[in-house]
Amino acid sequence: MVDMNKILIVDDDDELRENLAEILSRRGFHIDEASSGEEAIKKASSDQFDIVLLDLMMPGVGGMDVLTELKKSKPRTKVIMITAFATIDNAVEAIKKGASDYISKPFQIDNLDVTIRRVLEESKFDISAKNLGLDHTLSSLTNYIRREIIKLLHINKSLHLMETTRALEIEDHTKVVFHLKMLKESGLIKQDKEKAYSLTKEGENALDCLKILESHLSS
């Protein structure tokens, strides 16, 4: 149930944090707040949160440091980074350290809501993949965007970056760049001389596993 999902909002901007807490509470989430990295680590160590909304730039213990600590102590907790500096470098570093996604300030609350619900679905995907013994095969596909890319490439055979971005209906193409890079490094997709992406044989096999898993989730 959505109203059982617990979210910790971590931001030193009191007004933003309190407004987010009020809005997300009305949308059925159980909310707690932390105004600093130190407070976030303390609260996360004594409670179990489904998602931590974590500001990247904070005085003292910054968002990246908090992310590192959270992934050590609470690896199942999903983290969404909040940043005013939406660059691919920030995205790569945050996701390599374990973040599930990031959202850029200023953002629309509906976009944040969609991101939160996608990350919650990712958590269910993780659990089901492990229960089915598919965690190794599908480790690159826990993220919703990467799963959708695999499906799009299966349907369209090949796509360029901007074609993929438009098909995904994602405004920030840097997110798509990163996820394409992850899939390429995992050997699930390849890129030709014209910079078009397509599935490898391993990618087609992963798609078959993905269908099994989604069938399991819907049953």
Concise summary:
The two termini are 17 Å apart. This protein is α/β, with parallel strands linked by helices and 219 residues long.
Q: How is the secondary structure organized here?
A:
Elements: E1 6-10, H1 14-26, E2 30-34, H2 37-46, E3 51-55, H3 63-73, E4 78-83, H4 88-96, E5 101-104, H5 109-131, H6 144-156, H7 161-168, H8 173-185, E6 189-191, E7 197-199, H9 201-218
Parallel strand pairs: 1-2, 1-3, 3-4, 4-5
Antiparallel strand pairs: 6-7
Helix pairs in contact: 2-3, 5-9, 6-9, 7-8
Second CATH tier, the architecture of the largest domain = 3-Layer(aba) Sandwich
Rg computed from alpha carbons, rounded to a whole number of angstroms: 18 Å
| H/E element sequence | EHEHEHEHEHHHHEEH
Q: Provide the structure class.
A: alpha/beta
CATH topology of the largest domain: Rossmann fold
Kindly estimate the percentage of residues that lie in beta strands according to DSSP.
5-15%
Q: Could you give a short account of the major beta sheet?
A: 5 strands, parallel
